[in-house]
Amino acid sequence: MNRGVVILGIYVTDLTFRAERMPLLGETIAGSAFAMGPGGKGSNQAVAAARAGAHVVFCTRLGADAFGDIARSTWAAEGITARAISTDGVATGAAHIFVDDATGGNAIIVAAGAAGRLCPEDVEAIEADIAAAAVFVTQLEQPVPAARRGLELARRHGVTTVFNPAPALPLEDDIFPLCDYITPNETEATALTGIAITSVDDARRAADALLTKGVGAVIVTLGEAGALLHTPEQSVLVPAFNCGRVVETAGAGDGFTGGFAAALARGENPLNAVRFGCALASLSVTRAGTAPSMPTLAEIEAVLGEAAKSGSVLAQHS
Predict the structure, then answer these.
(1) Which of 22, 89, 108, 122 has the maximal Cβ count within 10 Å?
(2) How far apart are the first and last CA of the chain?
(3) What positions carry a catalytic annotation?
(4) pLDDT of 33-75, one tens digit each?
(5) 282 among annotated binding-site residues
(6) Please, what's the b/e burial string for 88-107 (b: 16 or more CB within 10 A of its CB; e: otherwise)?
(7) What topology is assigned to 5-24+32-317 in CATH?
(8) Taking CA 47 as the corner, what is the angle to CA 283 and CA 105, rounded to the nearest 5 degrees?
(9) 28 in a labelled binding site
(10) 104 annotated as belonging to a binding site for a ligand
């Protein structure tokens, strides 16, 4: 049996606008480009994991509309098994993404739509999928009770749990012991711990605070600096890879988490899984879009192979 990855999260259709700056309130400016495509943290992570070679089951809710049709065709094309409930009278979610022409940086507004109605009962309906998986992944774009139930069921069945606490929300402390791995970025780690992160040492202090809350291992993603794997036994900074000019960073965090989960599911140790996730994310930022930017397994392996030959992957231990 192929013990793959089950992901609970939302799908939205990304509406991406590129411009030289954000407009002020009440102002209209000219953009340089527009694109529409599949998005949503959970769905992006599902695409990333599937392209990275994992068997993926994705659970969400959709509206009965054109955006929902885009979602289903996206998952079919990627070989993702969809557990997607159609919800009458509610639109499929959408995201407004502003991308800075010069830097590739982004600002995002997400409206979860139908996926905002995901509930614990929806997760209980896929308990058999979770029980058969190697890894379970969820985030915070859907309601917290659904995410918590998924983590609980995965824990019940001995399935490795990966919690991506994005966007950052206040959380009850009892969710943290359900997490084998937690993957916040700097902003999210600060929101969860109150520790401002301006350096790797700051990230280590925030990670220690999360370990104290009961998390098994912490991975703080640090953008172009890479990702910090922090456990009670080790603290290792895995650098990002230089894969070319940065075009758009909106999908990088999702790519990392999806790639990390895919690598864990096929038996990689945590450090190698972090390297794999970093390679995936480093490739994704050289391309436009979120889900469309995710690379294939062959592309990721090529980056890792080149780095191994050149000796450029130098993990930094504390």
Answers:
(1) 122
(2) 39
(3) 254
(4) 999 989 999 999 999 999 999 999 999 999 999 999 999 999 9
(5) no
(6) eebbbbbbebbbbeeebebe
(7) UDP-N-acetylmuramoyl-L-alanine:D-glutamate ligase (3.40.1190)
(8) 45
(9) no
(10) no
